[in-house]
Amino acid sequence: MNTAINESFGLIGNSQLFSDIAPSDWDEVADILEADIKSFGRGEYIAYSGDRLRYIGIVLSGRIHIMKDDFYGNSVILTDLNRGDAFGETFACGGFELTVNIRAEEDTEVLRIKPEGILKGSAGAKNKNLEKDCGSYHRQELVLTLLRNLVKLFSSKNFFITGRIEHLSKKKTEDKLLSYLTDVERRGKKDKNGVFEINFNRQELADYLAVDRSALSSVMGRLRKRGVLEFKKNKFRIIKRTDSLKEI
Amino acid sequence: MNTAINESFGLIGNSQLFSDIAPSDWDEVADILEADIKSFGRGEYIAYSGDRLRYIGIVLSGRIHIMKDDFYGNSVILTDLNRGDAFGETFACGGFELTVNIRAEEDTEVLRIKPEGILKGSAGAKNKNLEKDCGSYHRQELVLTLLRNLVKLFSSKNFFITGRIEHLSKKKTEDKLLSYLTDVERRGKKDKNGVFEINFNRQELADYLAVDRSALSSVMGRLRKRGVLEFKKNKFRIIKRTDSLKEI
DNA sequence: TAAAGTATGTTGCAGTTGCAACGTTTGAAA
DNA sequence: TTTCAAACGTTGCAACTGCAACATACTTTA
Q1: Per-residue pLDDT averaged across B135-161, rounded?
Q2: How confident is the model at residue B122 (pLDDT cuts 50, 70, 90)?
Q3: In what order do the strands lie in the sheet with B56-61?
């Protein structure tokens, strides 16, 4: 039994990928998925565009950005990942070359699992190592559960990305920003005053919304003046307006 | 045996979702997935934002747009679907309410399949209808294959969407357009002269890239003048430039 | 073929954004 | 505390976009 990996399952055991799996099965699951743990330093690239990624990563601690950088040095943040979030599943399961860069924004620990064992084969009698690969009924059940969890993970991811497209497809910076903030406000936890936090600093926020940082700043200033938005650093509050009522 | 559904499997049998499944198994698969076929007229809405979609759709014929419409009547085309393409998997498998509208752009036939049968349970002995649900070893194998195919479908979809984000995240219309066209050129089939076709008219293309139609038109005109792009209606040719060499 | 409808291109203008440069605040290190 | 660097805000300008209105093709239908 691998203590470190078992610990990590404990950390993110409530993650989508391992739901409905009993702690007593963690060892076997770790075996099926060839799980291991790797650490990355702040600013270190976990993988580059063009690489073949053979594992799905799960953030145990720290923070990761999936980003796309072009010739000119412009970079766009595609996803911001924090503890419990998974990444790379698209490439690991689809066999595509990476089209993005993956970078640790802080010192980061990643649980790496290979989906190959549950995606490939077990074509019954054809397999020599029948006992291990085709395995017991129990193992079969585990594979089924993992596959189902993987499908749910993909669904959530896709759902999230669809929201991302929605923000990006607004034409004006102001709309992009409000679309994003409203989304974070709805999903995340806010205090009793309606104040919530985002994970980005200004430059990152601009890269996420694909706009210029200074332009974003001035748009934010305008929104503050108009009384639509309050913010200080990365804490925000959206002021709900009831214009239509006020006008009556 | 349902002839229509079997025929449809023949039509899109090479689709990702049904790969590695023998024609002799189609009937059983159709049963597992509760497959049926439904037709929609041109312009008809297949589902609205807010609906619960319980099936995955596969386009047998015709054409479908997944779109997001806001208050002001602005609409953004998220995806353009043609024969063989699947849709709705995110919502059907994730249990989310639809956040998009789905509309038939032409007379369209859709194969509908419910993923519930392969996502839910079969918790062995707990199930009363053991013979049917837990089923034979063969049925178990089919479920496994379908799940794996579903994962691959999600991977491809995600990969595709990532590209979509890349286009949208360009700041200028010109870059959005070229990013999109280059992508289509690479994926799709072009003739010996490098001419390829897109599925959109101008308004649709503008809605896809989230820009104004007339602004798009004028940008296209400029690109033509500059000799970067040739086009007529929905046929395009990108002229590869070797500026750096010419300047020497 | 005529007529109506649809798709595409063009133009002018007001408003927004990208970009570069500079000023201010903040927080960590010396 | 002082110093320094990074983050954030501001400003000015050139360029781009959204938008509305109109002009020109191309299709479809009667």
Answers
A1: 91
A2: low
A3: B36-40, B108-113, B56-61, B86-87
Buried-state track B78-102, b at ≥16 Cβ within 10 A, e below 16? bbbbeeebbbbbbbbbbebebebbb
The answer to whether some atom of strand D lies closer than 7 Å to the beta carbon of A171 is: yes
By C-alpha distance, which of A143, A51, A140 is closest to A88?
Answer: A51
Output the CA–CA distances (angstroms, integers) from residue B133 to A120, B31, B125, B136, in the order listed: 24, 11, 10, 9
pLDDT > 50? residue B88: yes
Residue A122 touches partner B, C-beta closer than 8 Å: yes
CA distance A208 to A202: 10
Interface of A with B in 175-214 (CB under 8 A): 210-212
Neighbours of A225 (CB within 10 A): 9
Rounded distance between C-alpha atoms, residue A78 and residue A100, angstroms: 9
Q: Does at least one atom of strand C sit less than 7 Å from the CB of B114?
A: no
Task: With 0.85 as the threshold, say if the pTM is over it.
Answer: yes
Asked if residues A109 and A46 have their Cβ atoms less than 8 Å apart, the reply is no
Please give the C-alpha separations between residue A159 and each of A75, A155, A163, B92, B157, in angstroms, as whole numbers: 23, 6, 7, 11, 12
| Structural tokens at position B61 | 């014929």
Question: Residue A71 — pLDDT band, cuts 50, 70, 90?
Answer: confident
Query: Three-state DSSP class for B58?
Result: strand
**Residue pair A6/A60 in contact by the 8 Å Cβ criterion:** no
Contact in structure between B31 and B45 (CB atoms under 8 Å): no
Look up residue B34 and give its DSSP letter: T
Q: How far is CA B42 from CA A144, B10, B55, in A?
A: 40, 24, 21
A53 Cβ partners below 8 Å, 6+ apart?
A47, A88, A91, A92, A98
Please indicate whether, in this complex, the C-beta atoms of A151 and B150 are within 8 angstroms of each other: yes
Q: Which residues contact B163 (CB under 8 A, 6 or more apart)?
A: A99, B183
What integer pLDDT is reported at residue B74 of this predicted model? 81
Indicate yes or no: strand D within 7 A of the C-beta of B210.
Answer: yes
Question: Is the separation of the CB atoms in A43 and A18 below 8 Å?
Answer: no
Antiparallel, parallel or unpaired: β A229-232 and B75-81: unpaired
- Calculate the angstrom distance between C1' of C2 and CA of A137: 75
- List the single residue in B68, B122, B147 with the smallest CB-CB distance to A151: B147
Nearest to A208 by CA among A220, A198, A218: A198
